[in-house]
């Protein structure tokens, strides 16, 4: 089992949409957060909180009845934090077009100890070319963020 990746699917229901049938962005964001949280909990074996979500851009409308699939992957592990890439695909089950990419984002999840403080998570060493590329890109993003924070 790959404990760094987890996929969850949901059919969108009327209570998640506006009167025109468009699913609220917040519903999708909550689903992404839950998927990121679940994989982070499984990876770290502890409760996790969301510390940060990077840019979100909705490329496609999502309508009631669509099957939405979130795949969350831990791409970088710090001392107590994990960067999780969440990819969202949407599928109209009545059409033959198959799943289409709707949006994606990076979530930073922090493992919390029972004392309410961040706690260490198991280290992660990327192995495949894709894993190493994602890991290196995460390091660049984190360094950029830290540099911006220092400027403030
Ligand atoms: C156990 C149960 C099992 C049940 C199974 C059920 C499964 C069902 C799944 C549902 C899953 C739902 C998942 C939703 C989870 C929420 O939505 S939680 C609610 C929203 N989030 C919050 O309330 C968090 C509020 N913020 C905080 O509590 C604190 O700011 C934090 C995030 C703990 C950080 O505290 P801090 O004092 O700044 O800690 P600090 O030691 O300085 O930093 C800790 C790490 O966080 C990083 N960090 C801190 N702030 C940031 C930031 N803004 N950006 C990036 N990184 C940051 C630091 O760089 C550091 O990283 P490392 O170098 O250690 O790797």
Automatic annotation (TrEMBL):
<dbReference type="GO" id="GO:0005737">
    <property type="term" value="C:cytoplasm"/>
</dbReference>
<dbReference type="InterPro" id="IPR029069">
    <property type="entry name" value="HotDog_dom_sf"/>
</dbReference>
<comment type="similarity">
    <text>Belongs to the acyl coenzyme A hydrolase family.</text>
</comment>
<dbReference type="InterPro" id="IPR033120">
    <property type="entry name" value="HOTDOG_ACOT"/>
</dbReference>
<feature type="domain" description="HotDog ACOT-type">
    <location>
        <begin position="2"/>
        <end position="115"/>
    </location>
</feature>
<feature type="region of interest" description="Disordered">
    <location>
        <begin position="117"/>
        <end position="136"/>
    </location>
</feature>
<dbReference type="InterPro" id="IPR006683">
    <property type="entry name" value="Thioestr_dom"/>
</dbReference>
<dbReference type="GO" id="GO:0052816">
    <property type="term" value="F:long-chain fatty acyl-CoA hydrolase activity"/>
</dbReference>
<protein>
    <submittedName>
        <fullName>Acyl-CoA thioesterase</fullName>
    </submittedName>
</protein>
<dbReference type="Pfam" id="PF03061">
    <property type="entry name" value="4HBT"/>
</dbReference>
<dbReference type="InterPro" id="IPR040170">
    <property type="entry name" value="Cytosol_ACT"/>
</dbReference>
<keyword id="KW-0378">Hydrolase</keyword>
<dbReference type="GO" id="GO:0006637">
    <property type="term" value="P:acyl-CoA metabolic process"/>
</dbReference>
